[in-house]
Amino acid sequence: MAKELLRVLVVDDAVVYRKLVTDVLADLPDVEVVGTAGNGRTAVARMTSLKPDILILDLDMPEMDGFEVLRRMKTDAPHVGAIILSAFTPQGGELTLKALELGAFDYILKPQNPSMEENRQALKDALAPMIRSVVRLREVRDILRTARQHQETIKRNDSPLAPRPRDQEFGAFPAKSVKRSRIVAVAISTGGPAALAKMMPALPGDLDVPILIVQHMPPLFTQALADRLDAKCAVKVKEASDGEALLPNTVYIAPGGRQMKVAKDPGSNELIIRITDDPPENGCRPSADYLFRSIVEHFGGMATGVVMTGMGSDGASGLRLMKEHGATIIAQDASTSVVFGMARKPVEEKIVDVIAPLHRIAEEIRRTVK
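Above: the chain sequence. Below: its structure as tokens.
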């Protein structure tokens, strides 16, 4: 039986980008471009007739912009996903974050290279792993849907079988009694801005520890993310700066395109944040593994490591090191992750103490520091 292809609708008012994205998608396996649209109004109409699985969506378009398309999708086509085509500017970062909070799956930057071939390769490098993740996400959801239907059948038949653990794909471990953590470090990627916008406002303002976050994003975008979260949270949220002190009740987001770690100030011997241009790790800068190693060096087991929604495996080796030194590890569960990638390996290796849905992550963090 032939594998079902991922149906894609490309939406952009610029003909050059519609063609560029369409050509790139044509080279990818498991993908069928079912059509294109030059504005949001046409896209909404074609969603009904073409039945795409996902849109590659520009935001700034005439007649109806991408934001209105996302709002229409939430009510009229909630099963359809969207990947945003974003401009690499401060305003583009702010608009992209707004789109992600409205439910977009992820974003790619519109390439601005001198040659069309360079632009094509940059788009392919960005789109290929996302498409693979969308295909995998669809497969996982099909598996979970089948499992739920099976459970419902068992219940209807009054089966005496014991119920499964609370978190579907890998089960869950009960929260344990631990020593108080003095710092929290978070790794997050695809689906991160929307997940953080839901999780972080639930953190109390008197948490009394610093929180360091590695969110895989380019420069300019992380400042916009920090500003949006700061307006919603009881704790202070900021983009981290080199040399600043670690303060309680403050969230430090690693600047896009740079590495972040904890270090000792040679003058005062106090712990500070260092922002460096050290090489990428796991193809990422900022990298969670880079941060987590420094957490182990300066806090040992008196730390909480959190891994949330995201593609790839960045953070896995750092979390393993944290666990070896006695830290508490929390993972977001598969059912509430946009992509269950970064958390998968730590869960499979059984180094995770708590697997929790998104709405419970803040409470699990609070329990480790209070």
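The first helix runs from residue 15 to 26.
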